[in-house]
Write a structure and sequence with these properties.
alpha/beta, homotrimer, 47% helix, globular, Lyase 2-enoyl-coa Hydratase, Chain  A, domain 2, 275 residues, three-stranded mixed β-sheet, 2-enoyl-CoA Hydratase, Chain A, domain 1
């Protein structure tokens, strides 16, 4: 399927660009350090919808405009939600908060490889998003923290994703003290995979990782990511049964056959050609 | 609630001191390197009971008297339990062992922030206790080990807490070889958060961490810790629903309102005043 | 039970040697970098069967012949399975893949302490095997990778074991990019415990670890490993109940009594005598 055959949604708080099979998604409220609003959540959701079915879109690169990744939830947006008339049973604060958790879960499970480029503030919900990337590259001077409890609030929707990322032992200290980490400390805790020292080095690391992603077969990557995310959520033998069915299907499928041929012919497989 | 309005229990094997919203709980059998007995377990339990309902008590600092944290279970106490007449169906060895696991689980879930200051021997059950702290500070020369299998016994009650803390890969090596770690190695494995080189540096690190804890809202910290501990034990969507309810309640509660005001007025919130 | 009283199975693709209570199991297809076949899986299975009931066999050392640990599944073997007539309902590719997952799970749960000595290629299924060792020693120049998706296939049977070993955050990057790690990086991610710089250093580290294993009581080690592997798969209180029963039994058993006596008499326990 040709990536030019589908349309990206119109957006006001994020910027979208599709190039070489990569969706570049930039949080775009630089004056608010890209603090997230309900509008922004909806726009990210629509962008994920647009690319989800397209195997030609191999990766999604998440970034923030203006030197910060994301400062968390927008307090003014939250106050607006709080002041909204509670027509019917729904609590707007509950709904706003819960919607954010659904988005994080959705980014976690995106069929594409999600790469986060992390600079400046990576706070609260922004840290939650960073925790569900497949590849995270951090600027050494980036600042990771969950300041919620200092504001009298729990880091409600990101707690499970932070624990899944860095483990309970590190999560409990960070949440209960509001401590901040720089890029190197985030790498040491396994929150990010790479640390770079300047924008050009980050761009170079990103190019390298995208090259690697393109050498992996699109459908095999989708199937593999789905398997990895089911570990712990499914009984192990049932998961291994499902995995063996996926394996047999892949060997017989076009990717498996092309992969075996390319291996024997000592050449790159067709899906790596876009490089 | 004024912390001076409740009484701490009388104790013979631990020492208790309440100051500035912090309960200092010191294992106090220095001649036995603070090896744990049934009496000591009961005293720790009573101390946790005494402070549990009090939001003014923000943290519990666990330490050992005399240069060691805790050498594990007291062998003489165990032999006494073994020799006790088995009246009724209960097995005293089973009961003694199981009671220790209940205490570790209880410290894990204490509503306060639990900070462990770890020196000298941190062995067996002592290592189990260290594994459920929210913040662990280790002396570089401290010695962490699970020597149980060398004595012909399984590290029965601490196994799940050690795996939760450092992962299965590290736990299986340490348990099956009885290997010892120093403070720096314990930090590398994520068993502790900080390493210090002398008592004064440990005291300074503790003061710093207590200052951080006081900047976090008491109820928000309780709610957050509860959420973190439920990750993995509850289905994720159900946990996120509960988290969103806690969030909405916190925004509307006194802490959330004070947190928002303090943020806008660029001042410390009221709960940080005790500093 | 005398280890000389049982027979090791005859093998063509692995080599077996039993000495001093240690089964040395060497993957032995050096010309194929020890790539795994159905025959090899069957031979490993038979070797594990032979030693499983014998408490005198304290450890299993896994190695590869000829400078490589294991390059993964043998592609020719897979193609042969693919071409096999599908008599009855069974899919031979499904069966071959699933059989490998069963073997990895079985090595994970082997009652002996499993030590992996990792050199050269530690790829795909070979990396899966490394992930279920109790102690892993890697040559600094060893090369760890999951190249499956580059061949159009998912790393189907090893996914849960890799996630259990190094966590989801690291596993997703490695699987979705096919990235390779050397021994030092594998240690940093917790995939292995030790890194050595030359064969003699690896042999020395292995001797040291075997000495440590022998100081741990054979039955206590079996019981402890079983407990550790049940963490997360069983409800915690039920696991702690079972653990307390094992503890009480061990205290009263021959190992517990010998352990206590040796401790009081300041001597090595009987099971360490083989040293």
């Amino acid at each position: 399927m040709n990536p030019t055959l589908f349309r990206l949604p119109g957006c006001s708080q994020i910027a979208l660009e599709l190039a070489d099979g990569v969706l570049h998604l930039t949080l775009n409220r630089p004056a608010q350090r890209n603090a997230m609003t309900q509008t922004m959540l909806g726009e990210i959701d629509a962008a994920l919808d647009a690319v989800a079915p397209h195997e030609t879109v191999r990766a999604i690169v998440l970034r923030g405009a203006g030197g910060h990744f994301c400062a968390g939830g927008d307090i003014r947006d939250m106050q607006a939600a709080q002041d909204a008339p509670v027509a019917g049973a729904a609590d707007p604060l509950f709904a706003l908060n819960r919607a954010f958790g659904r988005l994080v879960a959705r980014v976690d499970a995106a069929p594409q490889v999600v790469i986060a480029c992390l600079e400046g503030a990576v706070m609260g919900g922004g840290l939650g998003l960073a925790c569900v990337s497949d590849i995270a590259i951090a600027d050494r001077a980036a600042r990771f923290a969950m300041p919620e409890t200092g504001l009298g609030l729990p880091p409600a929707q990101i707690a499970p994703f932070v624990v899944a990322r860095i483990g309970l032992a590190q999560a409990r200290r960070l949440v209960l003290t509001g401590a901040a980490l720089d890029g190197a400390e985030a790498a040491r805790l396994g929150l990010v995979h790479f640390v770079t020292d300047e924008p050009e080095a980050m761009a170079e690391r990103l190019r390298e990782q995208l090259t690697r992603v393109r050498r992996c077969a699109p459908r095999a990557n989708r199937v593999s990511k789905d398997l990895l995310l089911k570990v712990g959520a499914m009984e192990r033998d049932a998961l291994l049964d499902q995995a063996a069915r996926s394996f047999a299907e892949a060997v017989r499928g076009d990717e498996g056959r092309e992969g075996a041929r390319a291996f024997l012919e000592r050449r790159l497989p067709s899906w790596a050609a876009a490089d």
